[in-house]
Amino acid sequence: xxxxNNPGAPEAPRGEGPGATPVKTPAGHDAGxxxxxxxxxxxxxxxxxxxxxxxxxxxLIVLITLLASFLxxxxxFRAYYIPSGSMEQTLQINDRIFVNLLVPGPFDxxxxxxxVFEDTKGWLGEPAxxxxxxxxxxxxxxxxxxxxxxxxxxxxxxxxPGDRVECCTAEGLLTVNGxxxxxxxxxxxxxPSDIPFDVTVPEGQIWVMxxxxxxxxxSRMHQDGPGNGFISLDDVTGRAEVIAWPLSRWGDAGGxxxxxxxxxxxxxxxxESE
Length: 274
Prior knowledge:
By secondary structure, this protein is of the alpha+beta class. It has one domain (66-273): Ribbon (Umud Fragment, subunit A), CATH 2.10.109. It is 17% helix and 22% strand. Strand 8 and strand 9 form a beta hairpin. It is elongated.
């Protein structure tokens, strides 16, 4: 027989069944509470929010990297590749070099520096048209590739403003301000010059020559052209510092700058000759 209102009958646990609510015990704990689906701890971001934070962080890192690369390319270093053999063996075809943009500028160029300069005198002739390539343009913008819309050359700086550069002595050596210069960087078998010349470098100009003299159309070859073979210091982009690629050739991109260490300044040379 069913027992109604029987104090001894067990009471169904409250907090269970449809619509039931947790019952607090005197200690304040839930009694008979059934946990729902697992949720994140209070205050912790959800999975979607964590993904957004990760994406935002990656985008921020990429933007900072691009900005840093752009600033480096604009103010510090720029990458160039070597397309010809006019600077062999110092620089070889397909070498990639980093050029220091602070020279000239805060720092002066020196005799023996390997310099990159813009071809404003037309030594290279008309540039070949370059097809549009978004990937290349992006790499050019961030400085990982040279600007294909500009033409540049790379040569060794032989004469500074005021220097008298002459070739050649009876021993076949180049002289600067009357001092013979041994050129250990020359391509094996190359003479200092097969073309005799005697020039004084004007103010604000430099005289440049390739290390592979037999394969270099440098200042010697353009004495009858615009600028008479001299290059304006304003056209100098920077000084070659490092061969960055291929890795097997990693190292100094200039080499043997000390070949000119005994060359006097032009004023001192003139004083000695008087």
